[in-house]
Amino acid sequence: MNPLFKDIPQEELDRYLTAINAKTISYPKDSFIFFEGDMPTAFFILKSGAVQIEKNGLDGKRIIMNRFETPDTVFGEVYAFLQSIAYDYSCRVIADSQVLCIPAEMFSSPIPSSAAQIKMVTNLLHVLAHKAYFLNQKLLIFSSFTLRKKIAVYLLQQANGSSTITLKLNRESMAEYLAIPRPSLSRELMNMQKDGLLSLSKDTVTLNIEELENLA
Fold first, then answer.
1. H or E segment at 201?
2. Can you tell me the distance from the alpha carbon of 40 to that of 177, in angstroms, rounded to the nearest whole number?
3. How much is the pTM?
4. What are phi and psi of 180, to 5 degrees?
5. What is the DSSP letter of 3?
6. 16 partner at 20 to 30 Å CA-CA among 8, 31, 155, 209?
7. Exposed, middle or buried, 136 (CB in 10 Å: 0-12/13-18/19+)?
8. What is the spatial distance between Cα 61 and Cα 26, in angstroms, rounded to a whole number?
């Protein structure tokens, strides 16, 4: 069950989503759900596929802010709640996707005595808390002063205590996520392997947790 719909009976939820004209839309790969500078009219729930929140600079460089591949992920909710602020990022579809689009008017035009709406807004606070934690984790990466420390912090976050992880991002996407040149990333990963901090095997990384934690 989507965290936004927690504790809402299905029949009641269906009636509410119909009343506010929420719709499931299919997006093909490489299309965009919204562009930087667009004004928000809805927020979204990923039902299938994968989408990517990205920032494109004037120099053509792209920074990946986040990537959503897990069904029931909520995104775009902050801008929908504010409504008066344009998107700072674009949302690109990276695999054919189905997305539930919920009109932003649900925040400004409440339906009287709608228990489903009240519960959704309450649940949204928990969603936002998790998003705030994620942003804090990414800030830790960006505030790292050296390339090696930045990579170490990222890998430890992905590992979550495990000594072996399978990278979800390829080298190019990982470099964009960390906002560093791809050649620099590849070179530093090889140097870290030589120094015994990690071991690389295709998309699997075995970590020397203790040494990386000392570095981070």
1. strand 198-201
2. 24
3. 0.67
4. -135, 155
5. G
6. 31
7. exposed
8. 28
